[in-house]
Amino acid sequence: MRERIIEVVEPYISGLRKRTSLRCTASREKEDAMNMRVRRLWAPVLSTFLLSVSVQFVALRVPQLPPWVFFTRNGVSIVLAPLWMLALPFIGALGASLSLRVGGNTRDCLLTALGSAWLNGGILTLGVPLSMVIERHFSSLSIKLTAYIVYMIAWCLAPAVLLALGALPWLGRKATMRARGATDL
Known about the structure:
This protein has 185 residues and is mainly alpha-helical. The chain has one domain. It has 6 helices and 2 strands. It has helices spanning 2-59, 82-101, 106-113, 115-135, 141-167, 173-184, and strands at 68-71, 77-80. Strands 1-2 form a two-stranded antiparallel ribbon. A hairpin with a 5-residue loop joins β1 and β2 (77-80). The chain is elongated and about 90 Å long. The mean pLDDT is 79.
């Protein structure tokens, strides 16, 4: 009787073992892919964003180069630091090279280089409606929208152009092939 039970149950148990090992293998592959996404994109994006914010913070406090201040008709003002604008191509190049070093493709390098600009855009996009809800000033919608558009141009669009200019040498196919050849050594 015992042998008969073992004969019946054994194929079921071996099937369970195979499925469990396949699931473990699939989850390990999924985890490895996620770790590579973090290494190729998110870690360089966050590091270049923190570097960009730090440079902007320091650049606004340098007394030798006063910041540029612009006003709109609605009274919205924007303050830009010229040293920060000059540093953006180097920050974009750093982000692209960091992504390329860990095996990122051209898309990852470009997204990493532009990461500071799109994170600023995301923060602004979330911040404007939140500020309206927190302050309960819905009557000043035109001023808030003007501020949003001006800030998106000054802190996202213009920096994105400068960041992309800095990343151009790392975006070509030859640069990708050189980096892959250097990592193979």
